[in-house]
Amino acid sequence: MAEAGKARVADAQTVRIEITAQYTCVPKHGEVDNDGDVYFDVAQALSNGCLIHTSPAQAFEDEASDGYITLDAGSNGPYVPIVENATITYCACAVGGTCEPAGLQDDGGNTIKVGNPPEPGHQK
C-alpha cells in the first residue's frame, strides 16, 4: 500500500510533482529509478515561474552549479537525476528568491528518492 503524500509509479521511471501557487509541492515525496524522469508542473498562477533549489546541488542534469533550476508555468521536464541511490531534498520559491531545502525538515521536507538509497541511520 502506498504511503500518503508519496508519488510512486509502478515502474518508477517517472515522477510528477505539482508546484502550487503557494510554492507547495504535491506530493511532497516521490521515488524514481536511477536515470528516471522527474517532471515539475508549475501552477499557471505563477506566471513568472519559480525556482527549485536542491540538495545536493546539481542533483539533476543541466542544473545550475549553485543548486537551482528555473521553471516556467506549466509542465517542465524531464529532469534526469545525476545522483544514483540517493535522496534529493528540494524546495520551491519565487524567481529571484531563495529557500533552503534542508530547512524544511521540520515538516518532513520535500524529497525524491532516486534508485535505492540507504535508509536513514543505516550504513550501506
Structural class: mainly beta
Number of strands: 10
Number of domains: 1
Strand content: 35-45%
Count of DSSP helices? Answer: 0
| Overall CATH class | Mainly Beta
Ordered list of secondary-structure elements with their pairings:
Elements: E1 6-7, E2 14-19, E3 25-26, E4 29-32, E5 37-42, E6 50-55, E7 68-71, E8 74-79, E9 86-93, E10 111-114
Parallel strand pairs: 1-4, 2-5, 4-10
Antiparallel strand pairs: 2-3, 5-8, 6-7, 6-9, 9-10
Task: For the structure shown, list the relevant keywords.
124 residues, Immunoglobulin-like, six-stranded mixed sheet, four-stranded mixed sheet, 10 strands, 39% strand
How would you describe this protein?
The chain is an all-beta fold. The protein has one domain (6-114): Cupredoxins -  blue copper proteins (Immunoglobulin-like). The protein is built from no helices and 10 strands. The strands form 2 sheets. A 6-stranded mixed sheet has the order 1-4-10-9-6-7, with no helix packed on it. Strands 3-2-5-8 form a 4-stranded mixed sheet, with no helix packed on it. β2 (14-19) and β3 (25-26) form a beta hairpin. The chain is globular. Mean pLDDT is 85; it is low at 1-5.
